[in-house]
Design goal:
Distance between the termini: 45 Å
Strand order of the largest sheet: 8-7-6-5-4-3-2-1-14-13-12-11-10-9
Number of strands: 14
Number of helices: 3
Largest sheet: 14 strands, antiparallel
Shape: globular
Length: 261
């Protein structure tokens, strides 16, 4: 298993963002993302999805994922993870409480409670994404010359609802992508869980946003679903933090070269 290594200080910054969600060519909702840090140093990462299309709102579908984690000895250490998906008459949830002293997770789900043995470095679906970002930060800072870093494939042990899985985060290419009228230099990765899973996705990680994702795409019931960044804001703490190795900000509005005037 490949574990990301980075600087002693966590390679993240506090921010909030909104992603527009489209299904095919139709806007159906949005996802709000927020990464924050408590005074005691613990981090909280939360994604909340909401429908805007009337036919999706009628179904009452919503999803919330959140995780509390620490940054210890140059790696992510998840503490609690919670996933809640709401549908009329079919709400589902699962929550992991990591006990690293006993190497067990006390897990509660909509279908019952269980105890799951952990492995060193075990992540969850949200800290997997942040671990990939941490690895990209390290690889980019260690690049021998300016330009697009030569990123590598990553592998992680991930605790899903009721079992550990070996999952992969595979580097595809570097490319410029236009999102919401701005051009981002991005590293494209494909997250592979298993064949047929709608948690397989392709993510564009933007250099100017500290390698956080600017776009994510996957398929659901054969239809393409795309999350595209529409709002981005750093917290006051991040703006004032002297530890930032370089400015983190949205690029100026404009087309990518080769995409027209």
């Amino acid at each position: 298993m490949s574990s990301p290594l980075a600087a002693t200080e966590a390679p993240f910054f506090e921010y909030q963002a909104r992603y527009q969600v489209t299904r095919g060519d139709s806007a159906i909702g949005y996802v709000d993302a927020r990464l924050s840090r408590r005074e005691d140093g613990l981090w909280h990462y939360i994604l909340e999805s909401r429908a805007t299309a009337w036919y999706v709102r009628m179904l009452g579908i919503s999803t919330t994922e959140s995780v509390w984690f620490d940054w210890r000895e140059d790696r992510l250490v998840p503490l609690t993870y919670r996933h809640v998906s709401g549908e009329p008459g079919h709400d589902r949830f699962w929550q992991h409480q990591y006990d690293w002293d006993t190497m067990r997770s006390q897990t509660r789900t909509h279908s019952g409670n269980l105890e799951i043995a952990l492995e060193d470095g075990t992540l969850d679906p949200l800290t997997l994404r942040l671990a990939a970002v941490a690895s990209m930060v390290q690889q980019a800072s260690g690049a021998p010359k300016p330009g697009d870093p030569d990123f590598v494939d990553l592998a992680f042990t991930v605790l899903e609802r009721d079992e550990l899985e070996n999952q992969h985060y595979r580097f595809v290419r570097n490319e410029a992508i236009e999102v919401d009228g701005r051009c981002f230099d991005a590293a494209v990765y494909h997250r592979f869980r298993k064949d047929g899973s709608n948690r397989n996705y392709t993510a564009w990680h933007a250099r100017s946003l500290g390698w956080m994702p600017v776009q994510i795409s996957f398929e659901d019931d054969g239809k393409p679903i795309t999350l595209s960044l529409s709002q981005w804001e750093l917290s006051e703490q991040s703006l004032q933090a002297p530890r930032q190795p370089s400015p983190i900000s949205l690029p100026e509005p404009g087309r990518c070269p080769g995409n027209g005037d």
